[in-house]
Model the fold of this input.
Amino acid sequence: MAQSLPLNFRVSREEIYSAFEPFVHRRFRSSDMRWKRRVFRSWRKKFLEFWQHKIFKRLNTSFGGRQYKVKSTYENFWGSTETGAHLSTKGKTTPCLWGEDRMLARGIGTKRVHLLLLKRAFETVQPESVLEVGSGYGINLFVLSGYFPAIRFSGLELTRQGALAAKKIGKMSCLSQDIVDFAPDPIIDVNANRRINFYQGSAKNLPFADNSFDVVYTVLALEAMEEIRHQALRELARVARKYVIMIEPFSDFNEKGIRYFYHTSHQYFRGRVDELRQDGLEPHLVYSDIPHKIRLWPAMVIASPIS
Ligand SMILES: C[S@@+](CC[C@H](N)C(=O)[O-])C[C@H]1O[C@@H](n2cnc3c(N)ncnc32)[C@H](O)[C@@H]1O
Done:
């Protein structure tokens, strides 16, 4: 669903299809019993997690509810992630949807689509400086800086392991072949990894002056910041001069069925697009017509800080 708003943002169905297709292992009709069985298994798992969360809420705060849990989860994750395996088209699959399409695909394929949307968004808003908040080991920044040699890119990440992994890749002589191959469009500058500034810190208190970057963006990072949602959104608005771009599971798209169970039991981001104004952001464009896991539907929102 692309809303008719002033930004001239364009992405075609064919481009999205070709970005995602290498990660699709099997396609189904919605009536296919094999598809129904996979979906049922996912529903059952998420439904049980949902009730576990409801019953033991006070004893066992789940993932997104507390930043200390998010931090320890991602310290372990980024400390043990190897880019080749992480970005591979081969490996475990998950049920995914896109309109009427039913697919078993590698979840990481959705990131390729997110990168395509961000590329088109940057072509539209033409920033000179960009910050990613919650940048993990920097995969989005490495690909995007490879497309836009004239933009100054920075990344800020909560975990030491994520920031260290990003800095390590940043010191390599050029982008690794895994990253070049993962990029949905051809990379222009293979030395882009050396141009990015990485910081360790929290979105709760960004260590930057007001209006420091033309664009500030997040990809599936606010999802884990429900505890600090309002502070984080205000911080994004404060340090962004022109736009804040978020590819996040806004509640608008995650309020029903398996997505509701998953969202609730993980205590993910509960923000709605029309609530962004409360935290100083005016939404201009919402784009949600993208392949996504059945359990979580992120949408891209382009907003500007309200001065
Ligand atoms: C799902 S990962 C996404 C990483 C990256 N954006 C990507 O698309 O590959 C979420 C990231 O947000 C980071 N994060 C969570 N809370 C944060 C905070 N308060 N400040 C900065 N980063 C945070 C986590 O450490 C993790 O690296």
